[in-house]
Amino acid sequence: MSLSIGVLVVSRPVMAHDAYGPERGLVETPDPQQTGSASSENASLPLVSEQESSPAPTRPDPFDIEIVASQFLDAPVAGDAANTLRYGGRVDGYVRVNGSAIGASSKLTLNLRPEFRWGEDSNGVIGLIPSNTALFRGEGRGRVDLSASLEYKWESGATFELGKLNLLDVARKTPLKASNGHFGFQNLGIAFPPSAIAPNTITGAALTVPTQKVIYRLWVFDVDSQYRRSGLEDPFENGVGFLAAATRIANIGGNPGFYTFALVGSNRDDFARDILPSPLFPPPPPVGTFGDESGELALQLSGYQYVKRYPEAKGKGWGIIARFHATMGDPTFLDFSGYFGVTGNPRFRPQDRFGLAYFQYSLTNELIDDIAFRLTLEDERGVEAFYTYQFDDRFGLTANIQVVDSTIAARSTGVLAGLRLTSVF
∠ CA(18), CA(196), CA(382), 5° rounding? Predict the structure, then answer.
């Protein structure tokens, strides 16, 4: 599977993304009543001007280290799959070394991103789309990886990052949804939406340019997955991918919303063999025809709109999330996909989080036809609901349930129930 991203987060005092922290990916915008322009679209945006008074800039910390660990228990409770209880876990490290630590510019940052997984998971037991984003890696390729990149940030808030990038970090910073497997939704179809074009871990360059109302993003990357690779082995051997996105920051009823249009594509002349599960590989020519086209292109539309924010709990509230993704087909194995749901914080316990969403994924018709002789496939549909009880600043316990009608037609609808304990240090 793979990821498609077109939404950035807003941080203070300008619209650049705040890197880490379970709640730092959520948007904090000024209260319109305090800005004195409740009817203005700009009331929900951070305003920057020469006349604006703001605290004196502080020197960045030379080192910033965070560790996030999650443990999972889950089991199928309905459907064809055996009701086996499975236990697994994942630890992610986030290390940021500022250039000032080595006498370089403080605008330069070295990002190091180790990850480690253990145990078992229920991915693939019920549906094709993995049910546990944190424990998923294509074809089970190893449990340890390290990403590293250099990031430069201008005074305007624009950033340029070069190196090996773990895209789960982008999913974590998505406004309102803020899901990456450790937090929020767990199903890949919602937390880490596949595009079938961009891999989960990439090498390349990412430029982000925030303005007052729109955030622009441009990526150029190697189409091959860089998981457990340095990124220097045969770079761009199978093609170059790109993502171009614009996120419009809006205000509806005094609440911020983030609406994205994105294009993602590549010049690949074969299907993504390191992304598509091997049981779905089509037969080679002349029997099979899927994968014989060149070039990929997909369009994405997404929206994250707050419906209610709580004045007594800054940055907390709930809203609507939605996304639609469509491709030109062969050699991309996903035809269209999307989700729609609600998520946020309950007012009676704003430190907690909840979510309920529906998702649907469709494989490209040519792929379905090529493997119909051995496996009948259809659209995959599902619903996920979760509730996180944050019983300490550093510890949260999440109950999760997923109901999935698998893309494999012979399977009956399955239900997966689980628990997740997440710790942040």
Answer: 85
**3-state DSSP call for residue 366?**
helix
- Rounded Cα distance between 370 and 333, Å, is 12
Residues 6 or more apart whose CB falls under 8 angstroms from that of 329 comprise 293, 335, 364, 365, 366
The residue among 3, 7, 6, 5 whose CA lies nearest residue 256 is 7
Residues 117 and 166 sit within 8 Å (Cβ to Cβ): no
More confident call, 230 vs 386: 386
| Residue 72, token pair as written in the block | 């999972």
Q: Quick check: 115 and 141 in contact, CB under 8 A?
A: no
Q: Who's near 149: CB < 8 A, 6+ residues apart?
A: 110, 111, 113, 161, 162, 163, 164, 165
User: Could you tell me the fold of the domain covering 74-81+155-424?
Assistant: Porin (2.40.160)
Structural Rg of the chain based on CA atoms = 21
Would residue 178 be called left, alpha or beta, if left means φ above 0 and alpha means ψ between -120 and 50 degrees? left
Q: Report long-range pairs for 212-215 (Cβ below 8 Å, ≥24 apart).
A: 212/15, 212/42, 212/45, 212/47, 212/48, 213/41, 213/42, 213/45, 213/248, 213/249, 214/246, 214/247, 214/248, 214/249, 215/8, 215/10, 215/15, 215/246, 215/247, 215/249
Residue 314 in contact with residue 354, Cβ under 8 Å?
A: no
Q: What is the model's pTM?
A: 0.84
Overall size of the chain counted in residues: 425
Tens digit of each residue's pLDDT (9 = 90 or more) over 338-365: 999 999 999 999 999 999 999 999 999 9
Burial of 373 (0-12, 13-18, 19+ CB in 10 A): exposed
The mean of the pLDDT values for the chain is: 85
Instruction: Name residue 283's amino acid.
Output: P
For 278, other C-beta atoms within 10 Å of its C-beta total: 8
Q: Is the distance from CB of 130 to CB of 124 less than 8 angstroms?
A: yes
Cα separations in angstroms, 158 against 116, 151, 300: 31, 10, 23
Which DSSP helix (H) or strand (E) runs through 416?
A: strand 414-424
CA 240, CA 242: separation in Å to the nearest integer? 7
In angstroms, the CA 187 to CA 130 distance is: 6
Write out pLDDT tens, residues 106-139: 899 999 999 999 999 999 999 999 999 999 986 5
Please report, for the chain, the start and end positions of each structural domain, with discontinuous segments joined by +. 74-81+155-424
